[in-house]
Amino acid sequence: MTDSGRQLIDADRFARFTGVELLEMGDGRAVTRLEIKDHHRNGLGVVQGGALFTLADVAFAAASNSRGQVAVALNVGITFAKAGTNGTLTAEASEESRGPKVGSYRIHVRDESGDLLVTFQGLAYIKRQTTAEAVSHIRSK
How far apart are CA 119 and CA 56, in angstroms? Predict the structure, then answer.
């Protein structure tokens, strides 16, 4: 993991707003966490799909940016396996493949019991820009 990669993810204001925390990041992998609060629930009282997507998406961003080059989403897909209700959810991202321009990542979101709630597949475009350059640009604004 690069320090600039971590700084790039830490600069994600939406992740902070929603309560997603980055626990681990490095070498094509990442772990994020979300403690479920009342505002994460939909009208049925279960965790809203957008909250689950955000948790998985931040893990995807961290894993794909962990090697020092900026990576952005090309395509993502999400499958909801089980509704989340309470407690703390964890997303684990792993790199399935990475070439010079494209990387593929799989993210699993689980509840405290280890039950699978979501499978998320992300395809990232690897840019020429380094994460250090991106962080420097963000700071200059």
Answer: 8
Q: Whole-angstrom Cα distance, residue 38 to residue 50?
A: 14
C-alpha distances out from residue 117 to 59, 66, 80, 110, Å: 15, 25, 6, 5
Q: pTM for the full model?
A: 0.95
Question: How far is it, in rounded angstroms, from Cα 114 to Cα 45?
Answer: 20
Number of residues written out for the chain: 141
Provide φ and ψ at 18, rounded to 5°.
-85, -15
**Helix, strand, coil percentages in the chain from 3-state DSSP, rounded to 5:** 30, 45, 25
pLDDT given at position 120: 98
For residue 15, CA distances in Å to 10, 47, 73, 102 come to 8, 16, 16, 24
Q: Is the pLDDT of residue 1 over 60?
A: no
Strands (E) across 1-141 are located at 21-26, 29-35, 69-80, 88-98, 102-110, 116-130
> Is there a contact between 127 and 71 (Cβ–Cβ < 8 Å)?
yes
